[in-house]
């Protein structure tokens, strides 16, 4: 699992308890690939975040299942960030 201490680009929210991050891409194809990779991550983990997207942006919102953010939410956020890290290393 990715390092949860590196989640400084995620915004936290109090009502409802959660966190969100906006990702920007240079093309629709990159956006689609990220969404496909995120779908695979959701299928593997069983966690499905709220998504808002357009041609070159995706906002991922993770809401806590309890009254506070826990390891599941932080772990999913870290793995979401890792999707892009792995793409950057492959390029």
Protein described:
By secondary structure, the protein is an alpha+beta fold. It has one domain: Transcriptional coactivator/pterin dehydratase (Gyrase A, domain 2, 2-Layer Sandwich). It has a 4-stranded antiparallel β-sheet, with helices on one face. Helix content is 42%, strand content 23%. The longest helix is centred in the last third of the chain and has 20 residues, at 71-90. The model has no long low-confidence stretch (mean pLDDT 88). The protein is built from 2 helices and 4 strands. It has helices at residues 28-45, 71-90, and strands at 11-13, 18-24, 50-53, 57-63. It is globular and about 35 Å long. Helix 1 (28-45) packs across helix 2 (71-90). This is 4a-hydroxytetrahydrobiopterin dehydratase. Keywords: Lyase. InterPro entries: PCD_sf (IPR036428). GO terms for molecular function: 4-alpha-hydroxytetrahydrobiopterin dehydratase activity. Its EC number is 4.2.1.96.
Helix-strand layout with pairing:
Layout: E1 11-13, E2 18-24, H1 28-45, E3 50-53, E4 57-63, H2 71-90
Antiparallel strand pairs: 1-2, 2-4, 3-4
By CATH, the architecture is named 2-Layer Sandwich
SSE sequence, one letter per element? EEHEEH
- How much helix is in the residues? 40-55%
Biggest sheet record: 4 strands, antiparallel
Strand content: 15-25%
Enzyme class: lyase
GO molecular function: 4-alpha-hydroxytetrahydrobiopterin dehydratase activity
Protein name: 4a-hydroxytetrahydrobiopterin dehydratase
InterPro entries: PCD_sf (IPR036428)
